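Quick one: structure for this chain?
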Amino acid sequence: MSTETEAVDRSDEKIQKDVLAELKWDARLQPNEIGVAVKDGIVTLMGWVDSYTKRWAAEEAAHRVRGVLAVANDIEVRLPISAERTDADIAAAAVRALEWDALVPVDKIQVTVSKGWITLKGEVEWQFQKQDAERVVRRLAGVKGVSNLITVKPRLTPSELKQKIEQALVRSAETDARRITVEVEGSKVILKGTVRSWAEKEEAERAAWSAPGVTSVDNRITIVV
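Got it. Here's what it folds into:
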């Protein structure tokens, strides 16, 4: 495929069409619930849904589309009356859900709920524990949003972190490690280089977050299509 053809294929109009198709393909979403606007590869999602899970699903779907550089999620969550819960009920359900999840150290996480919005705080050793805690609570009935303020404490030296992340990139079938460079400042990871899709950029970031003790990832990788 020529460069000119690739540019045409990844026009804002084409990206918008593909995002709409991906939203329609996702079984968690209903057709015509969500509007999509695209400018310079930046996707804006609009409309309203009846659960936070749907809002999250729409954002994930948009990120899966090739050519998408970033997503602005302006979707509003409007819960039906039957799904409304008090903050106390949501907080109790969140604590129970975290207790039942074997990956989450519940004794290290604090839960606060205000007007249906859950805020998670605390300190864990692994990024997947932070992610799993959010995944568990965002699916609860009555939740309108989640702020994940859990921190990951450092465990390895910068050189050990760099080595583990580089090895993970080499192992991954979804990334071309030769096109990605890794820099480590304390427990912060900086990724640079070029990739062919948002999915590849996201996979590189996931690999970085998988290293123990990583507290932040600055993903400066650019997408060249």
